[in-house]
Design goal:
It contains 13 helices and 21 strands. It is α/β, with parallel strands linked by helices and about 450 residues long.
Amino acid sequence: MSNFEKRPLGALLTGDGTQFRVWAPVADDVTLVLDGSEGDDARSERLDMEPAGAGYFERFVDGLGPGTRYRFDLGEAPEPFPDPAGRFQPEGVHGPSEVIDPSSYDWQTADWGGVAQENLVFYELHVGAFTPEGTFDAAREKLGFLKDLGVTAVELMPVGAFPGTRNWGYDPAAFFAPDHTYGRPADLQHFVDAAHAEGLAVFLDVVYNHFGPDGAYAGAFAPFFTDKHETPWGQAVNLDDTHSEGVRHFFISNALYWLEEFRFDGLRLDATNALVDDSDPHFLEEMAVRVGEAFPDQKRYLIAEDDRNARHLIDPRGGSGKAGRPDEEGSPPEGRVGYGLDGVWADDFHHQVRNLTAGDDLFYFADFTDTTAAEIAETLRRGWFYTGQYASNFGKERGTTTEGLAPERFVVCIQNHDQVGNRPAGARLTEDISMPLYRAATAVLLFA
């Protein structure tokens, strides 16, 4: 039984009412604040939560159903907070959470068998920018177009609720709530269902390495950060310090939630190199184990974004059941005992293509100057280019061998949201090179 099943977080419909559960290990007491609902049975009252051990507080409210809006009062803040595991934020990340019935959606693709990993061809999609309407429903209407392109999988950029009405999704605030500007949770379920009906797998990009700067109230409930480690965003997410068990539970529950209630085929794990964890097993290994336990009959993929070219991410777990520690260079541990993830986004191919075709040579592109076609071919054969050579941008040796790893374990591209959006003018590769050269690069990608 997964953590999500043993101690699910948030507001869950149970029998004739709703079970509320929140993790607040540093709070003396927690009060459930019912803000009413849009129906005729609106209730507005304050109810004491009951301590349930390990920092969890619970309360069952009889007769309370979907649509109820609620918050939690920790006693010290001037206003109650939304639920860190709330399933929907109808008024945005600063407003109350809403009780959702995930079983209300009538799935039409119960016999969906997924797409084999070797057949995955991704289309990265931002729900807000993909159509003029910027909604799940509008994107759903374009699934036939995507199928005709020849892709076999849609990767949604993060959809968790964010502050404001426009965002890439990498400023996560409400991790369990599809953003209200895109639609309601049932609309996202409908999108996934319709994609499956078209034969398309659907992956979700999730961000567990940092919180956004506004509306991320989970940090008010528990010590989600630690000063043991630093990341590009500041203090690291607390995966190995005091109270880290609850933090790990929160994020693994979140992964299982998206995979179970929305039937995503897999997750892209953003910047796993910033998930710093000195405990054993590593957080990523624990996640892989929990996902495997929760889905024994149909594969759910976990694919890391990681710039270290470190094979321990995707090497299988060892016989001891615990991954060994990678060294400081990101090399696989002795015996190649790994975390058991399914794949990794590999950037070397992209960087080489940009250098060869557009001449990019600044920052990390400096490690790929004077790229040759033969070097690109070698990268495609082995998955990534750096397998232990010195990389000036990193200031050390980078990468590990890929010997024995199947090609489908590596996801490569010639453009993605980072490589376009992080450019000063947002230039795509098509704006920097001729169309014949772009077609040639695309052909290399498609036939790789």
